[in-house]
Specification:
single chain, Beta-Lactamase, five-stranded antiparallel beta sheet, alpha+beta, 46% helix, 16 helices, Arc Repressor Mutant, subunit A
Length: 359
């Protein structure tokens, strides 16, 4: 979206604030504090939960009495907000897109809020699908009778990749208590990691990273920094997008004959006034199993197509295998992606792979 000067300034402040720590509680607190500055709201809440584990809700709230959230478990089965965002993960929704106004005002959640002295009139929420075994719900509330606008919704949707990415990064590295422990943890775990100062100055790397680079990229494809040119270009693109408050995918997949190589770019907390980036390399099989959670959300035919995508087949090959036309496969995929809350084929493979290997 095209941000105005105020929105861009506040968004970049949020980017910098979230980049200054990889500790999950601190990251969530900064989201709660800064979100109302971007999108006017009386209260903001974050709820962390695990699918299939009733009652496993952890709340962080700003600007609102905690009474409602202390009683949330008994209200959860009647929560129209939760039901709506679960069906459309990673999509920002306003209350008008969840329930007709007349039904909303008769809902148990609406009535219970008034009983507790919390006269909430409008809500906007999104379920951040950080990992398919762990969700993070972000909800904005207004007490005044002023609905969230199209612009409010577009701005929240614009921020979804940033907030999701940062919470995922915190999950990847664990709730470490000190900044210098982050790199120590990476190196002790024998991870394939390269730490870079943009645009391409290498600060350190693990032996595992060197091994993977030599395996996947011939010397002719590596630049003066000894990094593959494609990874240098991808890092430059990710950094530029973030500096411009335009959040593109921070994961890149390099296809191979029997396996793929995934590169994930993670902005590390500033050190000495600079913001280094970690490049995390991971090999994964072409054939990623279709998670049960995903399978339940789509039809049998759609599941067959997803399994083909997870085998890294192109549309023409899928069409030939299933007796369809390539255009029919494209149509199925356009319908499948919103159901699964993914943006494209690469995102589908990424989400499925992380579900099979929870952190």
């Amino acid at each position: 979206m095209n941000l105005n000067s105020r929105e861009k300034t506040l968004t970049l402040e949020l980017v910098d604030a979230l980049a200054s720590s990889l500790e999950l509680p601190e990251t969530l607190s900064r989201v709660l504090t800064m979100m109302p500055r971007l999108i006017p709201a009386d209260h903001v809440a974050i709820c962390m939960s695990r699918p299939g584990q009733p009652g496993g809700y952890e709340w962080m709230v700003t600007g609102a009495p905690t009474t409602l959230f202390a009683h949330y478990q008994e209200l959860a089965p009647e929560d129209f907000v939760r039901d709506a965002v679960v069906r459309r993960r990673n999509v920002a929704l306003r209350d008008s897109e969840m329930l007709p106004r007349r039904e909303l005002k008769r809902s148990p959640l609406y009535l219970r809020c008034r009983e507790l002295g919390l006269p909430l009139e409008h809500v906007m929420a999104v379920l951040l699908d950080v990992n398919l075994d762990w969700h993070c719900g972000l909800t904005l509330y207004r007490e005044r009778p002023q609905p969230f606008s199209d612009r409010n919704r577009a701005l929240l949707q614009h921020l979804v990749p940033l907030v999701t990415r940062r919470i995922r990064d915190c999950r990847m590295f664990g709730e470490l208590t000190a900044r210098d422990q982050i790199l120590d943890a990476l190196f002790l775990q024998d991870a394939a990691v390269i730490v870079l100062a943009p645009p391409s100055r290498e600060m350190m790397r693990t032996a595992r990273a060197t091994s993977l680079l030599e395996k996947w990229f011939p010397s002719s494809e590596r630049g003066p920094s000894n990094l593959p040119k494609t990874l240098e270009e991808r890092l430059a693109w990710v950094v530029t997008r973030e500096e411009e408050a335009g959040f593109g995918p921070d994961m890149w997949v390099h296809p191979g004959e029997k396996q793929n190589l995934r590169a994930t770019f993670v902005r590390l907390p500033p050190q000495g006034g600079k913001s280094p980036w970690a490049l995390v390399l991971q090999e994964f099989s072409h054939a990623i199993p279709l998670p049960a959670d995903m399978r339940r959300q789509i039809s049998t035919r759609q599941a067959e197509i997803v399994e083909c995508v997870l085998s890294n087949w192109d549309n023409e090959f899928i069409a030939a295998e299933l007796g369809l036309t390539p255009n029919t496969v494209k149509t199925h995929l356009r319908n499948i992606f919103p159901k699964l809350g993914v943006e494209n084929r690469t995102d589908l493979m990424y989400q499925a792979a992380w579900y099979r290997k929870p952190l």
